[in-house]
Write a structure and sequence with these properties.
206 residues, nucleotidyltransferase, 4-stranded mixed sheet, alpha/beta, 8 strands, Spore Coat Polysaccharide Biosynthesis Protein SpsA, Chain A, 37% helix
Length: 206
């Protein structure tokens, strides 16, 4: 927990309090349905809990298949373990999707990135072109669902939503985000999360 709330609750709260968000749909493990139903009962924008799959890609595809939306509705996908996403970043992403059809959030790499094979450097990549990509990522419902359908038909396994959109032939716009939009999954992440909370003036503890 962070500040008396689960990481998921803190993440959901950002979208719950955002006027531009019309509904939240979560992919979950079937055995966790009762737990999540109880935990998320106070959040009125949580519209459905949908059984996920073996992999992230299958889980998101299950959610998209369960939705009934207009083609031009904007859908964004976000990791529940990224509680420090801001409403400003969400709004910038929505504007970019509205303008470009598909967009993601990322930050410029501060580090040198090397390709390593068998513990030896085989290539050093040009950092000026490298971005670290986070969630949320999104597109119009038509574009995103079609990209997931196409990936399944072609047996293509991507690493994020953008990779599927790219595979389907879409150009994906990048919105510059914040470095503190971290994914909290390890003990080290929790320590970093506590530092972020302290900086934001949150008196809670992880």
């Amino acid at each position: 927990k962070m500040g008396g709330q689960t990481i998921l609750e803190r993440t959901i709260e950002v979208f719950e309090n955002d006027a531009s968000c019309e509904g939240i749909h979560l992919a979950i493990h079937p055995r966790d349905r009762a737990q999540f139903s109880s935990l998320l009962r106070p959040y009125h924008k949580v519209k459905s809990l949908i059984d996920g799959g073996a992999e992230r890609q299958e889980s998101i595809h299950n959610v998209l298949n369960a939705l009934t939306l207009t083609d031009d509705a904007i859908v964004i996908v976000h990791d529940g373990a990224r509680p420090f996403i801001t409403q400003d970043a969400i709004h910038q992403l929505l504007l970019a999707i509205d303008r470009h059809g598909a967009a993601i959030i990322g930050v410029k790499s501060k580090d040198t990135i090397k390709v390593v094979q068998d513990q030896y450097v085989s290539e050093t990549l040009d950092r000026q072109y490298l971005w670290l990509v986070y969630t949320p990522q999104g597109a119009t419902f038509k574009n995103l669902k079609a990209a997931y359908d196409y990936a399944k038909n072609q047996k293509f396994q991507g690493t994020d939503d953008a990779s599927l959109l790219e595979f389907a032939g879409h150009r994906v716009f990048v919105v510059e985000g914040r470095y503190d939009n971290i994914k909290v999954t390890t003990e080290e992440d929790l320590l970093y999360a506590q530092a972020i909370l302290n900086e934001k003036g949150d008196v809670g503890h992880v």
